[in-house]
Design goal:
This protein has 158 residues and is mainly beta. Helix content is 5%, strand content 36%.
């Protein structure tokens, strides 16, 4: 007997949600798009089990992606009216919550438990100082060596 099974990661965009915003990463106007990812176990190409659901927010202007609070993501999935605030998003590239000054203050908050590797407060963390031999990507914020022409994380030109 032949038994066909597999495990795959799937992505689902929520087409009914779109929120206007000013991007903290690039400073341009754009929209937040929300999607979720999850793992599936398939038997004979039929999805049987689902686990590891995570919700993400992506900026339309530069493609910056943030981890979204699961409760807010579930509300969006149900079609409920929600406004995404900086406190609901987690910037995965620098491991700290988002802090848009236009939407609620200038003091960063403690990383949430749904995505943080540690629970220390980032309020006292000084701004990073880059060496002259380093560059920061304008699209994703990745710090790389000065001789690179393209970002190793997002592929954008530096």
């Amino acid at each position: 007997m032949i038994f066909i099974w597999g495990i795959s990661t799937r992505r689902k965009f929520f087409q009914n949600f779109r929120q206007a915003m000013t991007c903290e990463n690039c400073g341009r106007y754009g929209y937040y798009y929300v999607f979720k990812t999850y793992e599936t176990f398939t038997i004979f190409f039929i999805p049987t089990f689902r686990w590891g659901t995570k919700y993400y927010v992506q900026a339309s202007c530069c493609g910056k992606t943030y981890l979204l609070n699961p409760e807010i993501g579930k509300m969006i999935a149900k079609g409920q009216p929600v406004q995404i605030l900086p406190a609901h998003m987690y910037d995965m590239s620098v491991r700290r919550p988002c802090n848009n000054s236009y939407a609620g203050g200038s003091k960063p908050v403690t990383p949430p438990s749904y995505g943080a590797n540690n629970a220390r407060s980032y309020a006292a963390t000084p701004a990073p100082v880059y060496a002259k031999s380093q560059k920061k990507c304008q699209f994703c914020g990745c710090v790389t060596a000065a001789e690179h022409a393209f970002c190793p994380q997002c592929g954008g030109s530096i």
